[in-house]
User: Fold this.
Amino acid sequence: MNNESDLVSIITPAYNASRFILETIKSVKDQTYANWEMLIIDDCSTDDTRRIVEEQSRLDQRIHLIAAPQNGGPAKARNLGLQKAKGRYIAFLDSDDLWLPEKLERQLKFMKTRQVSFSFTQYRYMNEKGVISEEIVKVPDCLDYKGLLRNTNLIGCLTVLLDREKIGPVKFKNIPPEDFVLWLDILKKGHKAYGLQEDLSSYRVVRNSVSRNKLKASSWVWKVYRDLERLNMADAAICFIKYAWLALIRNRKYMSMGKLPINKEAAMRVSQG
Assistant:
């Protein structure tokens, strides 16, 4: 598995992430698959994020700090990382999320066995205190372009692994939600996204994060349907109703995170290393 040609470039945008970035880095360093590089793009943080990443880069040469010239948001930060990425495979991990130790190894094996270019996995929610939900976020076995339009919420960015040799160059548009727009662009070319039915990541729910503003997020998704993908009113409405229903279910899970008991097995797997 650890061929030089199978290098995985991990793209991590970071802005004022000093509370969680060290834990996120540790979850990468604990991977059972060792052939990776982690590109952390500091988006002009005003806290200790840059200092922490610099220290980690001195301890592990696979970790690289990229300093953004000005604050530009997650899409521009990820694109800076993609410009520097050397790997055939591209993964995304935000500065407050975590991977389980076997994430890369299992997902690469899945992609090689199935000969696929785009994969994503199951995951769990986690709150700011590290409490991990008992419930696993399920994923479909396969999504094409039309399937993703009607299932906006199904691909967690932190779970995605892309094969650039098969997909070609990858670049985010500065159009929110940026990850959803990128997945649509890829699938529109005829690729399919394949779901690995394994829980391999923890998505941290942070108060006041951009994605938690539901009204704003809803307006973004509607604009993607109508302005970017140019769906007619009827198709856009059908897709949006499905999106809103799934978003409501997810929001209820968010709201209950503080009351959920920690999943000890998942927590133990995250902290291994």
